[in-house]
Amino acid sequence: MVDQTENTNYPEPENIQEDLKVSRMMAKTAVEALKDKLGEDIRILDLHKVSVLADYFVIAHGSNRNHVQALLEAVEEKLEEAGYTIYDKEGMESFTWGLLDCHRIIVHVFTQEARVFYNLEKIWSQGQPVDPEEI
């Protein structure tokens, strides 16, 4: 049997708090970019207690495919300017939805119809909503 008290693979609590601060700053940067380009119904879900996928999901929609494209490009630019790495991009061809995976946060941008269809807020309802104005 492994003695868990000697396992050094688990981060210390203060390191977790520091990691979450970085994740919050990333989410704040993404929200600011979405606001600058008039992203609609911007939501943040805190998932750090329910998933290892990411600490936060940032979710928004645009009014049409061109708007979705502009939102994704603005978020990508702001995150990279701030020194954050985008590890993966998905859905960039269709522009009915797209995501930017930064490991700590995942930014999801949809058309309104695609957002209703995918309904991430319901799928990830165990995540804690965070007010974008307070992040």
3D architecture notes:
With 135 residues, the chain is α+β, with helices and mostly antiparallel strands. It has one domain (13-129): Beta Polymerase, domain 2 (2-Layer Sandwich). Helix content is 39%, strand content 24%. The chain contains four helices and six strands; from the N terminus they run αββαβββααβ. It has a six-stranded mixed β-sheet with strand order 3-4-5-2-1-6. The longest helix is centred in the N-terminal third of the chain and has 24 residues, at 13-36. The protein is globular and about 40 Å long.
Whole-number mean pLDDT = 90
Q: Count the E strands.
A: 6
CATH superfamily: Beta Polymerase, domain 2
Number of domains: 1
User: Structural class of the helices, strands and pairings?
Assistant: alpha+beta
Task: Show unreliable segments.
Answer: 1-8
CATH architecture title? 2-Layer Sandwich
Helix content: 25-40%
- Spatial arrangement of strands, main beta sheet: 3-4-5-2-1-6
Return Rg in Å: 16 Å
The termini sit apart by 42 Å
Which strand-content bin applies to the residues? 15-25%
CATH level-3 fold name: Beta Polymerase, domain 2
Shape field: globular
Q: What's the total helix number?
A: 4
What is the class in the CATH system?
Answer: Alpha Beta
Name the helix and strand elements from N-terminus to C-terminus, one letter apiece.
Answer: HEEHEEEHHE
Sheet of most strands: 6 strands, mixed
Keywords:
135 residues; alpha+beta; Beta Polymerase, domain 2; six-stranded mixed beta sheet; disordered N terminus
